[in-house]
Amino acid sequence: MANAEELKRAAAEAALDFVEDKMALGIGTGTTAEAFVRALAQRVRGGLKVTGVATSERTERLCQELSIPMATLETLPRLDLTVDGADEIDPGLRLLKGGGGALLREKIVAKASKRMIVVADAAKLVDELGAFPLPIEINGFGMVATYLAIQEATEALGLSGDLTLRRRGEEPFITDSGHLILDADFGRIPDPQALSRALHEVPGVVEHGLFLGLASDALVASSDGVRHLTV
Ligand SMILES: O=C(CO)[C@H](O)[C@H](O)COP(=O)(O)O
Predict the structure, then answer these.
(1) Which residues are annotated as a binding site for substrate?
(2) ipTM exceeding the 0.90 mark
(3) Which residue ranges of the chain lie beneath pLDDT 50?
């Protein structure tokens, strides 16, 4: 029986089959995305030519340490492919992301890509999104008012649950773009599209971790091998 690390590595390595020479690549955040970075670095050392755009400072640092040529979305605004992890994947390849706090940049990079492939172990597959707390990135200004507005908007959809300010130790967690994160413990989310719209209507909400209609493929590893799911 393979352990979680081995499964993440298997999924990440399978994504290399989709990487072609001279591609502009979005590179995700998290432990599975990092397994992809390490596998990619090996190919780059072997002569593969790609340019990466990182979805977080953490991924940027790792890519630079491993000598993967990097650019920014400002200089490379259209990408061929993004490879990223997820916290939950539903049967329609709708994702819940942001466990690592990189959801805003991850979503911008995914949207800038012709194709987004999710890499994950099979524990991330769910029938319905929401068991994992949904990260909501908010501006620090008026955060209590934003908190209350989110509560009101989501209660109107029949969703209730704690909204918890994410912390790193004693301090609030600050994203790479300088915002805060509320983790929303809604439980099952029957209509992710309606929730997405409602959250975007709240001033102060910068982004949320529902990735709808962005992923076209998922490479999901279990002890039976890596399955390729598509929409
Ligand atoms: O969305 C993310 C970071 O913001 C990650 O992709 C997600 O949390 C999965 O991480 P891991 O591969 O470590 O399980």
Answers:
(1) 29-32, 84-87, 97-100, 124
(2) yes
(3) none
